[in-house]
UniProtKB/TrEMBL annotation:
Name of this chain's protein: LLM class flavin-dependent oxidoreductase
A cellular component annotation (GO) from this entry: cytosol
Gene Ontology terms, MF aspect: oxidoreductase activity, acting on paired donors, with incorporation or reduction of molecular oxygen
InterPro entries associated with the record: Bact_Lucif_Oxidored, CmoO-like, Luciferase-like_dom, Luciferase-like_sf
Domain Luciferase-like: 1-299
Record family assignment: To bacterial alkanal monooxygenase alpha and beta chains.
């Protein structure tokens, strides 16, 4: 089983944004040492408790401090930007870090309405135009606009030896079919979705149209996981993320991920207890054996080529330890690089 990392660069209640971003770099280094396939970092705007608003900046920092692991965006929110500029940035990254760059693409706003308006004067129009924006971006990456089109006379330079690999990210049938239509690998956000993901992935695979010779459908499923030495330890670590999720739903949580002690002191209403049950449905919380069993079940259910793990905890040590325990349980002996 191939495993990867999705990092949202969470800020804990005792942290500065600098501390959170530096811990993201340390997580990428740990992922590389442990044998994870790729590390992606998310894009968010004006969301308290999440530090990364510019994945391309962090990828430069992380690329310079790692050697092998694939690195990418999870995702660049394309409706905010011109495809040409996105292609330039990721071609630049792919030139600096050959054969290591993924370009995850999404259509969500990634933040508040106010931040969305500050980023773009026409976000909603660009959401409607997303399929054509995506096609333009792919042409810029492949440097293959037809000769009679307006964009055929220039390139998104520098043109790297190994182009960035585009992935479409989503949680819906609409995004899956768009990925299939354009011959793109697809990353499904199980941790964010209430839909029947397995049925969505089946449609993606059935409708896949290769963009290049030899292409086949590729599927990543992203899941929220917290692993501890024991089930009880995992549950204790998870309480910080669970309470923070409730706080964000209420418009709170601006102080960042609460400590375990702070989270345990939070008084739950009956409605919030029901909300917690719903959040937990899309999570995996447990000891290494339990986590491996559930990851294997997810892989089978989704026909996934790879599982991408998102872990948020108050303590960076707990977060990295969770990835270590999973790697030790899942990977064959000798897989890690420590």
């Amino acid at each position: 089983m191939r495993l990867s990392i999705l990092d949202q660069s969470p800020i804990s209640s005792n942290q500065t944004p600098y501390g959170a971003l530096n811990e993201s770099m340390e997580l990428a280094q740990a992922g590389e040492a442990l044998g994870y396939t790729r590390y992606w970092i998310a894009e968010h705007h004006d969301l308290p408790g999440l530090a990364c608003s510019a994945p391309e900046v962090m990828l430069s920092y992380i690329g310079a401090n790692t050697n092998r692991i694939r690195i990418g965006s999870g995702a660049v929110l394309l409706p905010h930007y011109k495809p040409f500029r996105v292609a330039e940035i990721f071609n630049m990254l792919a030139t600096l870090f050959p054969n290591r760059i993924d370009l995850g693409i999404g259509r969500a706003p990634g933040g508040s309405a106010e931040a969305t308006n500050a980023l773009s004067d026409n976000f909603l129009q660009n959401v409607y135009k997303f399929p054509s924006l995506l096609r333009d971006l792919l042409h810029f990456l492949d440097d293959d606009f037809p000769a009679d089109t307006e964009y055929s006379k220039f390139t998104a330079s520098p043109i790297p030896e190994y182009p960035p690999v585009p992935w479409l990210l989503g949680t819906s049938k609409k995004s899956a079919l768009l990925a299939a239509e354009n011959g793109l690998p697809y990353a499904f956000g199980h941790f964010m979705s209430d839909d029947d993901g397995a049925a969505i992935i089946r449609e993606y695979i059935d409708d896949f149209q290769p963009r290049k010779v030899g292409q086949t459908p590729q599927v990543i499923v992203t899941v929220s996981v917290i692993c501890g030495e024991t089930t009880e330890k995992a549950e204790e670590i998870a309480i910080s993320f669970l309470i923070w999720s409730l706080q964000k739903e209420k418009g709170e949580g601006s102080q960042g991920v609460p400590s375990i002690k702070e989270a345990k002191q939070y008084t739950l209403t009956e409605k919030e207890k029901e909300s917690l049950k719903k959040i937990r449905q899309n999570m995996i919380i447990g000891n290494p054996y339990e986590v491996r069993q559930k990851l294997c079940a997810l892989q089978t259910k989704y026909q996934a080529d790879e599982i991408m793990i998102n872990t948020i905890a108050y303590s960076s040590k707990d977060r990295i330890q969770s990835y270590k325990l999973i790697a030790k349980e899942v990977f064959p002996k000798g897989k890690t690089f420590e």
